[in-house]
Every structure is written in structure tokens, then in C-alpha cells.
Amino acid sequence: MDPVRNPYAPGAGQRPPELAGRDRELEMFEVVLERIARGRPERSLVLTGLRGVGKTVLLNSLRSAAIGRLWGTGKVEARPDQSLRRPIAAALHMAVRELAPHHRAPDRIDDFLGVLKAFGARAVPDNAKLRDRWNPGIDVPAARGRADSGDIEIDLVELFTDAASVATDVGTGIALFIDEMQDVPAHDVSALCAACHELSQTGAPLIVVGAGLPHLPAVLSASKSYSERLFKYQRIDRLDRLSADQAFSAPAAREGVEYETKALDILYEMSGGYPYFVQAYGKATWDHAPRTPITGADVRVAAPEAEAELAVGFFGSRYERATPAEREYMRTMAALADADDMDTAVSTAEIAKVLGRKPASLSPARDTLIKKGLIYSGERGTVAFTVPHFGRYLRSQPSVDN
């Protein structure tokens, strides 16, 4: 079939042609927006899940829903070595710029931009070189005495409070979206929780919508014990069979192409219902199928190409980031995993036993793998891969280091 018409889109954060299986999350967010519009209290939202389940795509879709209601929005992608000051300042600058045309008092916007500029400027020392200073393109002078103490917990509460006040004046809200939220530095996580706590108590129309790996709730809880009640948590998982069939079939149907039931059976088995894999296998299958309807034989012929692409771009690129000691740790994890469900957690004590090492001696490798986002610890004494099917990939590559 014509590859130019191929509707599938495997890519990091790239919206698929059919956003299947996420209606519940979208409807829930619409309720949140409507409740805030009516002055009802609402919690900020946190999405968690493995890589490849579509968290970033869903985050972007929720942002689009907020924009559709004329909210001010901004987005941040957290990094483990970067303070939140500059990214949040830039995101809120964008959000307030979206609200400015609807505000009746330009001076009120300028007052907030002055506070925002002061907040962002504290990201670097006063004696920093000119090239390291923050230049946000804000024409008003930085305010003094508000959100500029240097203590990010105090400053973020004040900044969020002022931003919410601007939104209140306009009669709308502000939503701040944070991707890879598990990578927010620990001190900044504490500040973020404190700011959200303050907003939730006052009913201010500003919410944070975060997305991150499965251990994100534990990261937040370790920072502030009340975070368990502060956020509304939504686990984003693989698609069920009906939703996966929709993700395969609906884009093809719009191009006049159909799937045989056997083809969908095989595609679901191979993809596991993970949205990224659905797109990868769908794209390869389309390119190899000679005509409609697409058959099970077409899928089997195309599968090696999809697996080769995943092996390089999805699995291999992550594996290459690991040191030899870390790779040994992950291969042992894969060997110990349940053959029927290799995405389940394994015991760190069992890993040490197989390697003939004391658990404490393996802590550096484990901790670095967690920081690199390759594994996570959902419960004390266990670890699991953040990437679905990664254990299966490792088992199929016995000589991967040779």
C-alpha cells in the first residue's frame, strides 16, 4: 500500500492518529476544569506509567482541553540537574501572555510580570556572567520583595498565588503542565508540593498537571507526606484489546483499509497494547501489506522490521546509556523476571544472590539506573524496568555486549 498514506506515527510524544482508550482521563479533566470554573475546590493531577504508554501525548491533549476553555497554559519538561525556577518562569510567562488580551487592567499584568521576572532572576547568582543571566523578554522592571527571597518554597507559593490572582481577575484559570516530573530536583519537589497545597486551601484557579514514571507518587510522598492527598493520581496503562483494535483500525479505515481479525490478534499480542508499540507495528505492517484487507501473514512479514526499529531506537538507545556494571544488573533483572509478564518487579536481594554480591555493593548501579530512568523501585526491595518489554529485549540479546 502507498507508504505516503501510512497513517501511523511512532514518535516520542507525537500524537497518534487515533487517541484510543483515553476517554476516561479526558472526561475527568473536563470535570476538573468545570469545577474550577464554578469556584469548586480541586486537586492538581498526576499521571504515571511506563515509558511508551502515551503520558506525554495525554498531557498535551489535556493542555489542548484547557486552551479550548481559554485558560492560560504553560509546559515544562523537568531535568534532574536543572532547577525549576527558569522553566516555571518561562511557562507562566506564556500562560499569562495567553490571558493578557482578556484582562481589563494592563497594569495588573505588568505587576505580575515584574514578580515573575524577579522569581526567574534568582535562578543565577547576582554576580553571574551576562551570558548566564535570564533574559525572558519582559520589558517591565523586576519587582522587589515578592517571590525573590531565594528560598524556592517561599517564592513559588508567592508566584503561584499572584498568577492565580491574575486568572481570577480574568474569570478563567491557569494550568501548568510538567512532563518527566520524577526528574524534578528534591528541593524543588518540596516547593512544588507546598505551592499546590497553598492553592488547594484557597481554591485558587491554578492547577499543576504532572506526568512521570510509576515511582513518581513515592517521590512526591518522600518530599511532603500530605502529597498523597494533595494530588489526584491517574495510572496510565497499556490499551485493552478493544482500544488497541480501535488504534489500529480507525486510522486505516479513514484510508479505506481494513484488518482481518487474525491480523489484529497478532498485532495485539506483539504490541502488548502499549501505544508506542501499536504505532510502530502499525506503521511497519502498512508498509509491507500489498492490499486490503491486511492479513495475519502481512503482520508476520512486517514484524521483524518493527522489532528492528524498536531494538535500535527504543531499546538499544537506552541500553547504550548504561555502563557494563549497570547492564549486568539489568540482564540479571531480565533473567529473574516472570517469563509470562516480564514487566513485573523483581527482588533486589535475588539479583544480589544471582550475581554473588552483597546487596549494598549493588546499590550504586541500581541508584544510577534509577536516575537514568531505566528502572524504578515501586516498593522497597524491588525494581522493575521503566520500559515495557525491555526484559524481553535483553533476553533476546544474549551477546549484546560482544
Report on this structure:
The protein has 402 residues and is of the alpha/beta class. The chain has three domains: 23-235, P-loop containing nucleotide triphosphate hydrolases (Rossmann fold), CATH 3.40.50.300; 249-318; 323-395, Arc Repressor Mutant, subunit A, CATH 1.10.10. 51% of the residues lie in helices and 9% in strands. It has helices at residues 23-37, 55-68, 85-99, 106-121, 152-170, 186-202, 216-223, 227-230, 241-253, 261-271, 275-288, 296-319, 324-336, 348-355, 363-371, 390-395, and strands at 44-48, 72-77, 174-179, 206-212, 231-235, 346-347, 375-376, 382-385. The strands form two sheets. A five-stranded parallel beta sheet has the order 2-3-4-1-5, sandwiched between helices. Strand 3, helix 6 and strand 4 (206-212) form a beta-alpha-beta unit. It is globular and about 65 Å long. The protein starts with 22 loop residues before the first helix and ends in a 7-residue tail after the last helix. The mean pLDDT is 90. This is ATPase. It comes from Planosporangium flavigriseum. GO terms for molecular function: electron transfer activity; heme binding; metal ion binding. Residues 1-20 are annotated as: Disordered. Keywords: Heme, Iron, Metal-binding.
